[in-house]
């Protein structure tokens, strides 16, 4: 496991891009294709954001979760919604609840933001989050073009399915010390409903693990890298060339941990399906056409099931 963690860490330098335009170098595109086809994820360092800015994201997150419960509960989610502050939605008596507190927010489209859930403290929380997610949306567009080119597809083919109002959401995660890390997970095994997920890990405490070949591998900490993974919607659009990786978060008995995940997805009103260039006589269509995939996702997630199975042909 340690050797694999080192392999992932070393691949970061090779996979790094300048965050401005898709790499034209065929070798770099092949590395991107290899990382996503073998792991479904990679870490990137040359993403165009300074180390001090990423530290600011971490800081406003930590400050919010450090507030007294009375302050945090001003932003508590409603019973039938995931948006706001809280934990898992309880959908069944047999549900396993994650060992985490969350703040879940809709970022884009901007007219769908529920500002009542956006903390007013720390004072710069809202401004910082807005700036961060604007940068990530640019990175998402750049990445999806590069992913398409790595498969020798039309550069815009994935973005063409995004529509006019793509969905961007953010989830701030706080994992308090857990007395039974051998039995309780911070987040249960799952794959993401998004097209692309960007994760800013805790700078000091590990916890994220990916499943490969029926074995869990830890993700090493690279303080100013972003971890990028494809989600179920890229799996559908790529016709299974890239699989949405299953991952989990383990708990720690001594130290708390925070992270910030941003999920980029197509407009929920848009149909998504395998792009034409990914379907051929030798590789038939593997997924159905689907709309508003995210809304279907959470029912499956809380039951420990993979929603992607429901859209396979």
Automatic annotation (TrEMBL):
Domain called Fe2OG dioxygenase: residue spans: 166-266
Entry keyword Metal-binding: yes
- What keywords is this UniProt entry annotated with? Iron, Metal-binding, Oxidoreductase, Vitamin C
The signal peptide stretch is: none
Q: Which Pfam families match?
A: 2OG-FeII_Oxy, DIOX_N
Q: Which domain of life is it from?
A: Eukaryota
One example GO MF annotation: metal ion binding
Identify its protein family.
Belongs to the iron/ascorbate-dependent oxidoreductase family.
Q: What is this protein called?
A: Fe2OG dioxygenase domain-containing protein
Species for this entry = Populus alba
Lineage per the UniProt record: Eukaryota, Viridiplantae, Streptophyta, Embryophyta, Tracheophyta
């Amino acid at each position: 496991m340690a050797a694999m963690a080192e392999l992932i860490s070393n691949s970061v330098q090779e996979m790094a891009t300048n965050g401005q335009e898709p790499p034209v170098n065929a070798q770099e595109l092949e590395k991107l294709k290899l990382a996503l086809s073998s792991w479904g994820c990679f870490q990137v360092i040359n993403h165009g954001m300074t180390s001090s800015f990423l530290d600011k994201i971490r800081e406003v997150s930590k400050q919010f979760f450090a507030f007294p419960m009375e302050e945090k509960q001003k932003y508590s989610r409603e019973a039938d919604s995931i948006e706001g502050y809280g934990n898992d939605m309880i959908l069944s008596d047999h549900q396993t609840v994650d060992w985490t507190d969350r703040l879940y927010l809709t970022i884009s489209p901007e007219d769908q933001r529920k500002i009542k859930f956006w903390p007013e403290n720390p004072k710069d929380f809202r401004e910082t989050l807005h700036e961060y997610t604007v940068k990530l949306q640019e990175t998402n567009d750049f990445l999806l073009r590069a992913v398409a080119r790595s498969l020798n597809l039309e550069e815009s083919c994935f973005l063409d399915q995004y529509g006019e109002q793509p969905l961007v959401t953010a989830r701030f995660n706080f994992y308090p010390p857990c007395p039974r890390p051998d039995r309780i997970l911070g987040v249960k095994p799952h794959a993401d409903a998004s097209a692309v997920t960007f994760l800013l890990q805790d700078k000091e405490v590990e916890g994220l693990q990916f499943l490969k070949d029926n074995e869990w591998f830890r993700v090493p900490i690279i303080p100013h890298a972003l971890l990028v993974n494809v989600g179920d919607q890229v799996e559908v659009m790529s016709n299974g060339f890239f699989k949405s990786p299953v991952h989990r978060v383990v708990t720690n008995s001594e130290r708390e941990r925070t992270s910030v995940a941003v999920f980029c997805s197509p407009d929920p009103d848009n149909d998504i399906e395998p792009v034409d260039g990914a379907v051929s006589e030798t590789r038939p269509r593997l997924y159905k056409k689907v709309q508003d995939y995210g809304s279907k996702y959470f029912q499956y997630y809380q039951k420990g099931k993979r929603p992607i199975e429901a859209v396979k042909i």
